[in-house]
Specification:
This protein has about 290 residues and is of the alpha+beta class. About 35% of the residues lie in helices and about 20% in strands. The longest helix has 28 residues.
Length: about 290
Amino acid sequence: METFLAQKRRELGLTPAQLAQAVGAAEEEVARWEAGELPDSRYLLPLAEVLGVEVEEILRAATEKPHGASSAAESAGAAPASAAPPEEISGKVPAEEETCAAVGTEAEQRAASPQQLRADGTPDWLSSMQPPDGERGHGRPRGDAEPDIRERRPVKEKLSTPVNGFTHGERVFGYIVCLLVLIAAVFVFVQRFVVGVELDQDNYARFLDIDVDGWTDVTITVTSSADIEDFSTVLEVEFYSEAQWDDKVRRTLTLSEDFLAAGGSVSGSVSMSEGGMYRFYTFRVISVGGKIV
């Protein structure tokens, strides 16, 4: 028995290939629909427009038996006792039958009138009912199997989903902080090992060890823990008088080397023996210069 869709297609004088082209589907899909399979939702509206029926009729036909098919009991059995007499219902025509009759009449008129066929054999009046090119099966070649609907739905990445306990924003912030720390480390490395560190009053204690020996004849030795180019320092040595504590005398001592290697030292002496009974009291670094290499 013919299904509802097959009957409507034949009434319009269309072949399965022409119907498939009109709705933007494959001919194999039309065959499955006419065999009783429910069309995909994206084909329902174009299919209803081409066949001149309502979408509800297509859905209802897909869940009912094919047109004209009935059980042997229904065709041979007598009408139930409770059924209304034929004369009572003869004037009543269900709405579905009226719709089918109207569609059939329209189809007969189209079939009777001369039809202009296009180059591909499709009736000219179907051109206005065809969906836009971008909506015909999503560019799928005719004859391909219907893809799984799960493959047509794009999977959107959820950026807010935590990964290892951190959201996307927190991870981006962490990357930025790590990048800044790396840049700072590279800058320090360049300053320390490429450009070099200038020796001054604030950092000389990290690289220089100063030792003082003697009371009246004082020897000061400066030992370096790093290689220093153009090293120079000026020291001020202070002596006090044994006769009077407030009587203090200051002397300066300058030490310099073109290159002071790590572990190397430079020394100098200052004397107060000729000026009376003066003894070493303290010293301080007045200036220091050089470049750590």
